[in-house]
Amino acid sequence: MESKMGRYSTHALIKLIKFYAMKKNILLLYLLLGILPAFAQNKKEVLKVLTLTNGYFMQKWPDTGKDIVLNKTWPSNIWTRAVYYEGLMAFYSINPKKEYYDYAVSWGEKHQWNLRDGITTRNADNQACGQTYVDLYLIDKKPERIANIKASIDSMLKTDKIDDWHWIDAIQMGMPLMAQLGKIYKDTTYFGRMHQMYNFTKYQHGGNGLYNTTEHLWWRDKNFVPPYKEPNGENCYWSRGNGWVLAALVRTMDQLPQTSPYYKDYLQDFKDMSAALLKLQRKDGFWNASLRDSTHFGGKELTGTSLFVYGMAWGIRKGYLNKSTYLPAVLKGWNALVKDCVHENGMLGFVQSTGKQPSDGQPVTYEKIPDFEDYGLGCFLLAGSEIYKLK
Fold first, then answer.
1. Of the candidates 126, 98, 109, the residue with the CA atom closest to the CA atom of residue 63
2. Which pLDDT value is given to residue 318?
3. Which of 214, 235, 379 is nearest to 311 (CA)?
4. In the beta sheet, which residues pair with residue 68?
5. Does 69 map to a domain?
6. Domain count within the chain
7. Fewest 10 Å CB contacts: which of 148, 167, 362, 382?
8. How confident is the model at residue 26 (pLDDT cuts 50, 70, 90)?
9. Which 3 state secondary structure label does DSSP give 73?
10. Radius of gyration over alpha carbons of the chain, in Å?
11. Considering the chain, what percentage of its residues have pLDDT values greater than 90?
């Protein structure tokens, strides 16, 4: 910091600081003071940490079709594993190694490109695997890769039911998939239905919708809408749940034509959410599990933080978020994740286990292995891949 500031006289330095502060150009001010984190400025280091963490998981799970055995047995195409593969495909996009592609293809083949509970399922958690199936189809257009997931979504379109996404996690699991299919088949029916379902969750589930149009954050489901409150009297906004929505908006807009009548709605929600979340970042770079109550299991948490970093980094890269305002927060968040969560062997700490509220899976610590490690890594890979693209 001394070498950076040594180029200026004290008087000149004070004038520069005042000027950039007055212009609210926080990024240039940080650069001037030499306090932007150094780590996130190095693409090689980003690749290195993503390779390390992903390698830990691939070595731990060499058989992509192996069941996940905990308190019960789960097939490995459930939503937690699907989120990992979303992250892997994002990593593959910046580091296209054959072993990553083969690992993802093996996963699809082991499950015959099918969904948990088959093609008749309407549950977005079961359909989440389809996002990676579609990504792999776009690399090698073998029809069997997307036949089942298309059949599942098409069966939903044959009905008038639009209330399936009654918990906000489902928006991330299902909406980007409909956008993918609409793009592939040039069929706006998918776009229209996903917008109907999104709006039902936003404005109707839970009585008046799960989105607070004033605070621009989401309640996880009907059980958390007012009068439910956190111990400090604030609304309960679960970090990872809001992260799912922010990620869903990013992944959907990546597929949806900007000329679509729905694009501006998603973009406005994305901007509003990002602005609300920016104010809630902790001084250490993380976000609390309960976004508005730091006293209710407050502390470092990887999944929500990763999804916010992912979303905001994408917004900066696309020009939707002001770089001077958001880049310091994004780099601060990414550096916190790398510095405080990554073990020497690639394991990730501070991952909240599965659940639906701040108290689930507590305590969240550096050493604790969550019930599922896969989705935490998926969120981290999404964030890191977008940081890499941003540089």
1. 109
2. 98
3. 379
4. 74
5. yes
6. 2
7. 362
8. low
9. strand
10. 21
11. 88
SS3 state at 3: helix
For β-strands 73-74 and 68-69, DSSP reports them as antiparallel
What separation in angstroms does the CA of 309 have from each of 8, 115, 264, 281? 33, 29, 22, 11
- Which two three-digit tokens encode residue 283? 């001084």
334 and 195 share a domain? yes
Together in a domain, 287 and 355: yes
Reading the block at residue 95, the tokens are 């580091």
pLDDT digits (tens, 9 = 90+) for 150-206: 999 999 999 999 999 999 999 999 999 999 999 999 999 999 999 999 999 999 999
User: Among 67, 87, 88, 85, which Cα is nearest to 76's?
Assistant: 67
Predicted TM-score (pTM) of the model is 0.90
Overall average pLDDT of the 290-299 stretch: 96
Q: pLDDT tens across 98-156, in order?
A: 999 999 999 999 999 999 999 999 999 999 999 999 999 999 999 999 999 999 999 99
d(CA 304, CA 312): 12
Structure tokens belonging to residue 143: 């029809």
Residue range 84-93: average pLDDT? Answer: 98
Instruction: Return the CATH number at 382.
Output: 1.50.10.10
